């Protein structure tokens, strides 16, 4: 029986090559989209699954009043929590980001990447398998280092690395252990160096410079742990500071804000963790939950469109098989057997579609990986189970309705030969066609609005000019002499003919500043970003002063106690006349509070991406604090002879500044553009999926219009005999499809507006939704509809009248 079904399937496949091809391709595109989404979903949800402690490990974040969350804590806070909270099993302090440094062994050197500095029990929270060396207290000595097995092979080849000495920052470190990196993980370091904590920070409750990770005991109530940690903060910071100022703790909190502790669980931090403004909480970054949801949602929508397309084509083409069904019923075939036969045929088509989908995915995977910056592959038992599930689901959704529809054909009616004129099932096909138009409208509108938002971000005035300004990392190990070395370097490179200006500041355009200190003024608490800068920095970047003056070496007080603030901070503090206002802060002082005078107001500029509001900022000169925390030098270069200028800078830099590092630079504008890379990806994604949706919709519309018009061939022949003109026939044949298009468009614009408005709410600076994208979408849909339908209709009006009327 199955062999007979297969022969019938092959026969109809040959008889309807075009529509069979459209069926297979439509389904394969939809299934390919779902496979892409599954690969991305599996990867993002597999982070840290290898870690048996993932449910018990938490990163500690601190919220200062109404300001942002920061993934940094003071050392005594962590030590006190460990000592007084029994639910905490272990802690570790580490850098919440990767460092890069020169690693030397014997007479060789490497640029060590993915370096983490840590103290205490790092490998308790991230228990990578230890392949060689110590398994406990690995970082007990400050000159200890653990390295990955890949790094061990790179540096030591076939030697046993345990006990060997490597150097970083010209300091010796003893290799204590070799571990295996488990991927994917939120932390995948090649090196873990001990000796992170400075001695003078062990008792400093005010220095929020270290990422704190805690590991709780199994079964510990995390809400209880959080309350106890909050109590540690209250007793050791709020109460003591309030006592110093002679106020009650409640008054102190009212005036200065409270410090609220937030815990991010490792198991969920990748996708659902709380983002801090100074970067990703874990070195491997955060997952893009929004993009993940968009990918999954749109892929399901496309698969639904493909299924609707298939059902439409299947029910429309079923008319051609009406007599076959009637004959089979006459000779004894039951309704269940007919349903089983058509589901069997659907299963074959789905198998072909999945094979094509896998081929599409395999060919497109390199581009997809580049798009997501990942290395996804189609393997693993989980993926194959999901593929089997897709196979079963598509057969059920695509096969059941057409099979039941066909099995319900009335035997006598179809054998009389007049079933082709029946309107049975037309309302279902028309409803599905309207649904297709709705999905197409959603995608076209979405693509236009996302593109408009990205264009707005790319062209928005940023408040600074990064034109012809490059950022060059200033890697100088001697912190005490770093400022002096910068001054010498600046003087030397300013002599180069292609260098127009040189300056620096403690931050990075697009990513802000990692330094922040809170203070109060007239009972208003603020937590601004701290910007230390060289003289002339604002002028070089064309950042305007709207009130007062810039800081200048002409004024001695500018190196001691004068500040600039930005417009946002002036507004937050309610300063109508900010010039000469005295503000009190403990920033930069080990002896309590200092008084600073505002001498100028800086026009707001975007130091972070456009997703965030412009933060409040304060500006001082590097000579005021002498911390030398800057990481980059900013050089304005002439566009003339740029290649020659960069070559001279490279030669000087590698000889005099960073002999161990290759010269590296980045144009400021290009660096800032990275802040909206994700939005550009979403724009590109919408564009690609928009094409896919339109192609599938065109397939469905073409096929359905073809079947519909073929059913009306005798009607058209009679109309032509009675004198109907071609343009009248074209209008008659196409008007219902225009109606379907309009209804589908109205249905599609509602979810499009709601979802895209929600997407735009993620941006502090965004466009408004106008009627233009909706108008363009409607015109585009009408154009495509009329193009396809009129082309087919014109072809139908040229039929041979006698051929269809000679038997009437």
TrEMBL record:
Task: Write the record's keywords in alphabetical order, separated by commas.
Answer: Cell membrane, Lipoprotein, Membrane, Transmembrane, Transmembrane helix
The UniProt record lists the keyword Cell membrane: yes
Query: Which parts of the sequence belong to the ABC3 transporter permease C-terminal domain?
Result: 298-407, 688-800
**Pfam families noted in UniProt:** FtsX, MacB_PCD
The UniProt transmembrane annotation reads 21-41, 291-313, 338-363, 383-406, 427-450, 685-705, 737-756, 768-790
Source organism, top-level taxon? Bacteria
- Keyword tRNA processing listed? The answer is no
Which GO terms of the cellular component aspect does the record hold?
plasma membrane
Where's the MacB-like periplasmic core domain?
20-231, 437-647
Gene Ontology molecular functions: transmembrane transporter activity
Q: Where in the cell is it found?
A: Cell membrane
Q: How does it sit in the membrane?
A: Multi-pass membrane protein
Q: What start and end residues bound the annotated signal peptide?
A: none
Extract the PANTHER family matched here.
ABC-TYPE MACROLIDE FAMILY EXPORT SYSTEM PERMEASE COMPONENT 2, MEMBRANE COMPONENT OF TRANSPORTER-RELATED
Q: What is this protein called?
A: ABC-type transport system, involved in lipoprotein release, permease component
């Amino acid at each position: 029986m199955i062999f007979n079904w297969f022969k019938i399937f092959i026969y109809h496949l040959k008889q309807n090559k075009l529509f069979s091809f459209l069926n297979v391709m439509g389904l394969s595109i939809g299934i390919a989209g779902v496979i892409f989404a599954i690969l991305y979903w599996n990867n993002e949800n597999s982070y840290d699954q290898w870690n048996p402690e993932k449910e018990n490990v938490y990163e500690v974040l601190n919220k200062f009043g109404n300001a942002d969350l920061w993934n940094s804590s003071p050392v005594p806070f962590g030590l006190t929590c460990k000592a007084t909270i029994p639910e905490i099993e272990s802690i570790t302090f580490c850098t919440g980001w990767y460092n890069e440094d020169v690693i030397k062994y014997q007479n060789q050197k490497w640029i060590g990447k993915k370096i983490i500095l840590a103290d205490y029990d790092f490998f308790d929270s991230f228990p990578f398998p230890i392949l060689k060396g110590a398994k406990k207290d690995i970082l007990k000595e400050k000159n200890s280092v653990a390295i990955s097995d890949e790094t061990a092979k790179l540096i030591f080849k076939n030697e046993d690395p345990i006990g060997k000495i490597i150097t970083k920052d010209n300091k010796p470190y003893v290799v204590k252990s070799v571990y295996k990196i488990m991927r994917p993980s939120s932390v995948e370091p090649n090196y873990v160096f001990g000796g992170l904590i400075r001695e003078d920070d062990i008792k400093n409750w005010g220095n929020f410079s270290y990422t704190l990770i805690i590991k709780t005991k199994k079964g510990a109530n995390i809400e209880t742990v959080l309350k106890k940690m909050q109590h540690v903060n209250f007793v050791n910071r709020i109460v003591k500071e309030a006592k110093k100022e002679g106020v009650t703790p409640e008054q102190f909190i009212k005036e200065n804000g409270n410090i609220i502790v937030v815990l991010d669980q490792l198991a969920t931090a990748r996708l659902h963790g709380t983002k801090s403004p100074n970067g990703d909480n874990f070195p491997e970054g955060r997952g893009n939950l929004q993009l993940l949801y968009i990918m999954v949602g749109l892929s399901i929508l496309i698969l639904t469109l493909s299924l609707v397309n298939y059902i439409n084509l299947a029910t429309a083409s079923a008319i051609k098989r009406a007599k076959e069904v009637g004959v089979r019923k006459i000779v004894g075939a039951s309704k269940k057997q007919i349903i089983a036969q058509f589901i069997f045929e659907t299963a074959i088509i789905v198998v072909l579609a999945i094979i094509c989908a896998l081929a599409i995915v395999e060919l497109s995977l390199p581009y997809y990986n580049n798009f997501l910056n990942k290395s996804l592959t189609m393997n693993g038992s989980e993926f194959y189970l999901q593929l089997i599930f897709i196979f079963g689901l598509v057969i059920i959704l695509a096969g059941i309705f057409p099979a039941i529809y066909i099995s319900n054909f009335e035997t006598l009616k179809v054998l009389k030969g007049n079933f082709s004129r029946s309107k049975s099932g037309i309302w279902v096909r028309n409803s599905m066609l309207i649904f297709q138009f709705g999905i197409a409208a959603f995608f076209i509108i979405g693509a236009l609005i996302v593109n408009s938002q990205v264009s707005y971000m790319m062209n928005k005035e940023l408040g600074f000019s990064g034109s012809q300004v490059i950022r060059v990392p200033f890697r100088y190990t001697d912190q005490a002499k770093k400022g002096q070395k910068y001054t010498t370097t600046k003087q030397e490179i300013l002599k180069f003919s292609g260098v127009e200006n040189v300056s620096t500041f403690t931050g990075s355009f697009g990513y802000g500043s990692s330094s922040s200190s809170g203070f109060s003024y007239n009972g208003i608490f603020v937590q601004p970003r701290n910007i230390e800068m060289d003289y002339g920095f604002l002028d070089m970047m064309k950042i305007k002063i709207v009130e007062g003056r810039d800081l200048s070496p002409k004024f001695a007080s500018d190196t001691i106690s004068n500040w600039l603030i930005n417009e946002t901070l002036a507004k937050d503090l309610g300063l109508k006349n900010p010039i000469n206002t005295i503000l009190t802060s403990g920033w930069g002082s080990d002896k309590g509070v200092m008084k600073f005078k505002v001498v100028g107001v800086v026009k707001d500029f975007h130091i972070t991406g456009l997703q965030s509001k412009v933060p409040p900022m304060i500006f001082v000169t590097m000579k005021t604090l002498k911390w030398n925390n800057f990481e980059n030098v900013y050089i304005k270069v002439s566009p003339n002879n740029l290649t020659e200028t960069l070559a001279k800078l490279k030669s000087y830099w590698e000889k005099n500044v960073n002999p161990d590092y290759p010269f590296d630079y980045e144009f400021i504008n290009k660096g800032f553009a990275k802040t909206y890379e994700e939005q550009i990806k979403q724009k590109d994604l919408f564009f690609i999926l928009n094409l896919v949706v339109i192609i599938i919709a065109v397939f469905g519309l073409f096929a359905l219009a073809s079947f519909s018009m073929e059913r009306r061939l005798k009607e058209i022949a009679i109309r032509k005999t009675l004198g109907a003109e071609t343009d009248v026939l074209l209008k008659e044949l196409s008007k219902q499809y225009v109606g379907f298009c309009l209804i589908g468009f109205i249905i599609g614009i509602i979810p499009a507006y709601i979802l895209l408005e929600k997407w735009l709410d993620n941006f502090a600076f965004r466009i408004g939704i106008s009627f233009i994208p909706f108008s363009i979408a409607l015109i585009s849909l009408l154009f495509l509809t009329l193009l396809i339908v009129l082309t087919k209709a014109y072809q139908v009006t040229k039929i041979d009248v006698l051929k269809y009327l000679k038997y009437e």
